[in-house]
Write a structure and sequence with these properties.
By secondary structure, the protein is an alpha+beta fold. The chain has one domain: Alpha-Beta Complex (Nucleoside Triphosphate Pyrophosphohydrolase). The strands form 5 sheets. Strands 6, 7, 8, 9, 10, 12 and 13 form a 7-stranded mixed beta sheet that branches. α1 packs across α5 and α5 crosses α11. It is globular and about 60 Å long. The termini are far apart.
Length: 484
């Protein structure tokens, strides 16, 4: 008897949640939360500070606990073999004013988790934000993702307390994934470092710990206008959210109206042209990076308290002793990188047929996993280029430094990664200069794209760098409070 094939019936599902962008847009337009008003966030953070002991002290390398310089390489390593190492890097480039240089760099091969939990409260999506102490932040305490942990931390190599809410991001089925993408961190200071950027939506009740609070996207957008409140890890995760359209019709012809159109409208260059340009730039730009021993690194000197250059430029490697009552481990020591001077990360923008475009740069950084990523128009510490001739200074830097205040659409000071960098602050700017200062045919290495195109690219690995993702989160935050 001939066997009969029985078709197995499988229920197919939509490829995407069509209602999700609208729910996120509704949260962006909600300027107040159901549980905590925006004007109360500052007092809430102050209360967290009062409840915990925080202390950061510079120490000599000899007082580092379980950290030491390897006898053969001079690399700064942890006794467990985990966490990270500080090594040397030799970099050579066929482009730019410097053909070769040496520098220390952090090697942290683990993929960490940066995850934000979201839930409907009062019918509106709220984001669970953590008041997290990081030793490198100038004000120590800032709002971070629900979970912000390296693999060494969440596997408890430090033998400390477990990471709260971690299961929502490690156990499939605990919630619905809103975003999940590997993204790079600072390619100038990290060697091939990626983190998993996640947003997970849940329906079940989630009781917030006293150091956590629920906020709408609109509230977070308003807080992004304040200096050093939303940390870098939260900004990069927020940039990955697929937020839907908002209505800027009450202000036709305004910058906000052009920004709203930019997120979902037509563009100067179709997506395939942008990808083709980026591919050509990746083929054109050549940066070679080779890990070398930290000991005896050319141009760098190791003292009792710091590894730095004799001229005091760029950055130093220093050591810290940390006390933080709110962390999984309350006391520890560690090395960090301390940059010399405040950075500037700026998008130059232009309205093209009523649609806002941002000028992105193809940025090759020694620590990137790939050849390059899209970055801001200007991304640098200005003082690092003081010795260069005018023609070798970063393009558009002088435009940004001398910007007419009337052309500044957004400005705030934000910290960079506070767990590995000390007092690393950058001024984030969005400028709209005169059209003749922002030519439609920009210099080589630059391209006009819409915010919507950036939002599409950021859903994929290693296309948009961390500084540009921060600016993307700030641009989206500028629309907070507008009608959905």
């Amino acid at each position: 008897m001939q066997a009969q094939l029985v078709e197995q019936r499988v229920a197919l599902r939509p490829r995407a949640d069509a209602a999700l962008p609208g729910r996120l847009a509704e949260s962006l337009t909600a300027s107040q939360g159901a549980l905590l008003r925006t004007e109360e966030v500052g007092d809430w953070l102050a209360d967290v500070r009062r409840r915990h002991a925080f202390r950061v002290e510079r120490i000599p390398f000899s007082e580092l606990d379980r950290w030491s310089f390897h006898p053969d390489t001079g690399n700064l390593v942890h006794a467990s073999g985990k966490f990270f190492t500080v090594e040397g890097l030799r970099v050579s480039s066929e482009t730019g004013p410097r053909a070769e240089w040496y520098q220390p760099i952090i090697k942290q091969p683990e993929v960490g988790i940066l995850g934000i939990l979201v839930k409907r409260i009062g019918g509106v999506l709220h984001f669970l934000m953590q008041a997290k102490m990081e030793p490198g932040n100038p004000n120590l305490l800032q709002l971070s993702p629900t979970v912000q942990a390296t693999r060494s931390n969440y596997t408890r190599v430090h033998e400390g307390a477990p990471v709260r809410y971690l299961d929502y991001f490690r156990q499939p089925g605990r919630g619905r994934v809103v975003a999940d993408v590997l993204q790079s961190e600072h390619g100038s200071w990290f060697h091939r470092k990626n983190n998993r950027n996640m947003i997970v939506e849940v329906d079940e009740e989630v009781e917030p710990h006293a150091d956590f609070c629920w906020l709408t996207l609109g509230q977070i957008g308003e807080l992004l206008h304040r200096d050093n409140v939303i940390n870098m890890d939260a900004r990069t995760v927020l940039a990955c959210a697929p937020i839907g359209s908002v209505d800027a019709g009450r202000a036709p012809g305004s910058f906000l109206a052009a920004l709203a159109h930019s997120r979902h409208g037509a563009a100067l260059h179709p997506d395939v042209e942008v990808l083709s340009w980026l591919t050509a730039e990746r083929a054109r730009l050549s940066v070679r990076a080779e890990r070398v021993p930290l000991g005896g690194l050319p141009g760098w000197v190791r003292g009792t308290h710091a590894i730095g250059r004799p001229d005091g430029r760029f950055f130093e490697v220093v050591a810290l002793s940390v006390e933080a009552g709110s962390r999984e481990v309350s006391r520890w020591t560690q090395p960090v990188i301390e940059p010399r001077g405040m950075g500037i990360n700026a998008f130059v923008t232009r309205r093209i047929d009523g649609v806002l475009h941002v000028l992105v740069a193809a940025r090759a950084e020694a620590g990137f996993l790939g050849a390059l990523e899209l970055g801001p128009t200007v991304q640098c510490v200005p003082g690092n280029h003081d010795d260069l001739p005018i023609g070798d200074r970063p393009a558009f830097l002088d435009l940004v430094l001398g910007a007419d205040p009337a052309t500044v659409r957004y400005q705030a000071v934000h910290s960079e990664e506070g767990g590995r960098f000390l007092n690393a602050e950058s001024r984030y700017l969005v400028l709209e200069p005169a059209p003749e200062q922002a030519p439609l045919d920009p210099p080589a290495g630059f391209c006009w794209v819409t915010v919507g195109q950036l939002m599409s690219l950021v859903r994929h690995n290693n296309y948009v760098n961390v500084q540009a993702r921060s600016l993307l989160a700030c641009l989206n935050g500028m629309l907070s409070g507008l009608p959905a």
